[in-house]
Amino acid sequence: MSTNIEPAFSNNNIPVVFASNEQFVPVMAVMIQSIIENSSVSKNYDLIVLTTNISNAYKAQLQSMVQAYQNFSIRVFDISVDIEGLNFYTANRETITAETYYRLLLPELMPTYKKTIYLDGDMVANADVAELFEVDLDGYYLASSRDADGIGRYYKPGDQRKDYRDNVLKLKNPDNYFCAGMLVMNLELLRKELPSKKLLEVATSFQWQWHDQDVLNVLCEGKVKLVDMAWDVLRDAGNNQYMPREFYEEFLESERNPKIVHYGGVRKPWLYFDVERGEYFWRYAGKTPFYKQILSLVNDTNLIRHPYAPPQKKAPTSKNDAQYKDLVLKQFEQGKIGFRYIWKYIKAWINYKIKYRGKK
Description:
Layout: E1 13-19, H1 25-37, E2 44-51, H2 56-64, E3 72-78, H3 106-109, E4 116-119, E5 123-125, H4 130-133, E6 142-146, H5 148-155, H6 161-168, E7 178-185, H7 187-193, H8 196-203, H9 211-220, E8 224-226, H10 245-256, E9 260-262, H11 278-285, H12 291-297, H13 300-305, H14 321-333, H15 339-355
Parallel strand pairs: 1-2, 1-4, 2-3, 6-8
Antiparallel strand pairs: 4-7, 5-9, 6-7
């Protein structure tokens, strides 16, 4: 590997890695904000972002988020050279990009780290992620939590996932299939037994339906420490009920007290306003320097094409609309109004745009 990442702090260094392109930075920043607000002053947080195209302007805005904290560091690493010539399969899902595979490079990108946390950017933390770093990984490649939706689909009559996991992935214990959005990686053991070269060879050798997640489940099976589902709570699309009872009960408990909320799939709170646990996202979004970019992602096109968009009762008048919008955004940024108000306002504003589209 050409890129060599060294620890940002000499003591109590808690590495947390993300992967992002330029477009996704505003969303990832919400997760970073939630980590900051749930952090411990006794820990040093070494935040690392892997990319190939994040601009200097966005890098500066990310840096501004931690400038007031002596125990936080954010560094962005361009790994274009490290992935040159690699072709990652993503064609089967619109929401998946090549960045999802970057976590497979971590054993060699971080040669002196013994372990690291890896987190997807479409998440919000409600607990101190440093707790994950304390998980004992002796003899394990990594720690993660069961993929509730995927396991539910495995047991759901007629779902093709059973055939895929039994006959393609050939998993010995499909009940332990984990979600790769949250990982605690034993980099030391991976370098010895499953180095990045091996991980990447397997990743690029087949059109994996669930991408790097399938790769890790296949190669790490039997050496994965499963932690509470509360550390990666995905929405229930109606499939979780098919899981074995003990796992379903664990999921229901994780929903009551989510430590990390994960907005996987196409249902994103920055696109649609009726997403489960979307309030956690908006709790932090207005405190980031990217809040205007985040709000711009919610547009009338998204609401029109989504059949479950909530109905609107009242729209703002056109008079002084721009001034009112700026005032709302400023108050949101300053924390004077919460997600419920901004949610209500944005829906009304977008409804106004839809109703009067093309009218003078």
